[in-house]
Design brief:
GO terms for molecular function: extracellular ligand-gated monoatomic ion channel activity. With about 80 residues, the chain is an all-beta fold. The protein has a domain of about 50 residues. It is about 0% helix and about 40% strand. The chain is built from no helices and 3 strands. The protein has a 3-stranded antiparallel β-sheet with strand order 1-2-3, with no helix packed on it. The radius of gyration is 18 Å and the shape is elongated.
Length: about 80
């Protein structure tokens, strides 16, 4: 779990989970391995909530740049992350 952003002085909690699809090969000599996985994040940002008579709100794709998203990073030194 990571805390990245504050909303009115209260941190927004970002929950994560990871599903490992495959792992290997493992090299004990190099202390290296490879892994395929899904890394998911989810959070609730109350700044995006609205009240009104409509059930959904459509936004322009241009609005995505203005919406806060977690800036996730890895602290492991020998890490290469490929996102497909």
């Amino acid at each position: 779990m990571f805390v990245h952003c504050f909303l009115l002085g209260v941190p927004i909690i970002v929950k994560t989970n990871m599903l490992i699809r495959s792992m290997g090969p493992v090299s004990e000599l190099d202390m290296d391995y490879s892994m395929d996985c899904y890394f998911r994040q989810y959070w609730r940002d109350k700044r995006l909530s609205f009240k009104g008579p409509i059930q959904s709100l459509s936004l322009s794709i241009k609005m995505l740049d203005k919406i806060w998203r977690p800036d996730t990073y890895s602290t492991m030194e020998n890490t290469r992350i490929y996102i497909r």
